[in-house]
Amino acid sequence: MDYFTLARVLHVLAVVLWIGGVGMVTTVIIPAVKRMKSREEQMEAFEKTEGRFSLQAKITTLITAITGFYMLHLYGWERLLDLKFWWIHAMILVWLIFTVILFILEPFFLHKLFRKYVKKDPGKAFEIIHRAHWVLLILSLLTIFGAVAGSHGWYFI
Ligand code: HEM
What we know:
Blueprint: H1 3-34, H2 39-75, H3 86-120, H4 122-151
Helix pairs in contact: 1-2, 1-4, 2-3, 3-4
The structure holds protoporphyrin IX containing FE.
């Protein structure tokens, strides 16, 4: 069996589930929640959907990292020293940002902070969370663009 290809297949499947979910939350769920009338309804809907997605995101970020670092190990870590592989740095950066948010910031700070903010000004709280999701989604899509192009020999530099 070709373990490299298996790693690539698992890597892409994990990325699809993870970033696809971020896309769904950003373009469908948050806009729907923002249109709900009461603060309680908004909070319940958001926590139920985002809470479920959080577990999926945790598992898929782990699979992405294990398979990604495995492929990098087989290729050779010196790739990190070559600027034409900027998209590998971008992948690691995106993974690091999500890992810090999912495993540290969200459970220890963001959750409590968000609940407090929603009580004070729900409109603004959801606006901020929506913008943050857009930033992460755009960064992830640019990274996927660079990673697919780069993996197939289109380097740009
Ligand atoms: C720990 C973080 C990561 C590492 C070490 C890593 C590493 C790698 C490596 C070594 C490859 C193969 C490149 C090649 O064949 O030349 C790859 C492919 C790829 N990665 Fe990552 N990656 C990571 C995270 C991510 C993230 C966060 C995304 C999405 C935002 C992503 C999306 C992709 C895609 C779409 C491919 C291309 C698959 C293909 O077209 O064959 N990776 N990654």
